[in-house]
Amino acid sequence: MSPTEERNLGMIAHLVPAVLLPLSAGTLGFVGSLIIYLIYKDRGPFVRAHAANSLNVQIITAIALLLSSVLMIVLVGFLLYPLVIVVATVIHVLGAVKANNGEWWTPPLTPQLVR
Questions:
Q1: Residue 114 gets which letter from DSSP?
Q2: How far is CA 65 from CA 7, 20, 71, 88, 108, in A?
């Protein structure tokens, strides 16, 4: 796989969740990352790293959205839920820019659950 293809797939691994996350209220953001990770993880380390980072962001986002849903009982979750979606979308856009520039990047505040 050429470096350009790796950069493009790394960028797509972040852009698809950045688009799907707000459109689906946080439920479908992981799909693009998971597909790219499963199909291309053995074809290049750059694609694997960015797809894994994208999945890690999605896992943390899902946990935060679940907590926000529970906190809707005390009305705090109604503010927290959209904030989580906005922050995750911004992180994915930053990841897409870094991948497009060919930079290795680890998202902030995201543990490495998928490697």
A1: -
A2: 29, 15, 10, 11, 18
Output DSSP code: residue 26: T
- Chain segment 81-102, per-residue pLDDT in tens: 999 999 999 999 999 999 999 8
Residue 93 has φ and ψ, to the nearest 5°, of -65, -40
Task: Please state, in angstroms and rounded to a whole number, the distance separating the CA atoms of residues 59 and 28.
Answer: 12
CB 43 within 8 A of CB 3: no
Q: What is the pTM of this model?
A: 0.88
Sign of the Cα pseudo-torsion (47, 49, 50, 54, in order): positive
Place of tokens 């972040």: 14
